[in-house]
Amino acid sequence: MKGWLFLVIAIVGEVIATSALKSSEGFTKLAPSAVVIIGYGIAFYFLSLVLKSIPVGVAYAVWSGLGVVIITAIAWLLHGQKLDAWGFVGMGLIIAAFLLARSPSWKSLRRPTPWWRCSAFWISPRTPSSMRAGG
């Protein structure tokens, strides 16, 4: 659960940074440029924490997909960017993909434990001598 909270923080940092890019005017304005650098720093830091508990494919897909949807919504609402019907359909598909990725089935994307890390593979001191090599 903490991984998903960190992912939300990473997305918010990325959205704030990306929104400030236009205002930075090519990094010629100090305040918006600082917002961009700090925002992306927060985004990548928390994304690195997310990867401890969520598979990289799922985390990156959700991070980039929701970032695109939110940035597009901000540009449409605040900056008058045009968005046609197909644009709305595309945004809907990205949201649907997020909902699918967030479903419990994402855990099935984790790799199974390799055989050499399974406790059954290693012989413990309590293993009967008949099961030990040379025993």
Automatic annotation (TrEMBL):
The keyword Transmembrane helix applies. SUPFAM superfamilies: Multidrug resistance efflux transporter EmrE. It is a multi-pass membrane protein. The chain crosses the membrane at residues 33-51, 58-79, 85-101. InterPro entries: EmrE-like (IPR037185), Small_drug/metabolite_transptr (IPR000390), Small_multidrug_res (IPR045324). Keywords: Cell membrane, Membrane, Plasmid, Transmembrane, Transmembrane helix, Transport. It comes from Providencia rettgeri. Belongs to the drug/metabolite transporter (DMT) superfamily. Small multidrug resistance (SMR) (TC 2.A.7.1) family. Gdx/SugE subfamily. GO terms for biological process: xenobiotic detoxification by transmembrane export across the plasma membrane. GO terms for molecular function: transmembrane transporter activity. One of its GO terms (cellular component) is plasma membrane. This is Guanidinium exporter. It holds the Pfam family Multi_Drug_Res. It is found in: Cell membrane. The keyword Cell membrane applies. Guanidinium ion exporter. Couples guanidinium export to the proton motive force, exchanging one guanidinium ion for two protons. Its main location: membrane.
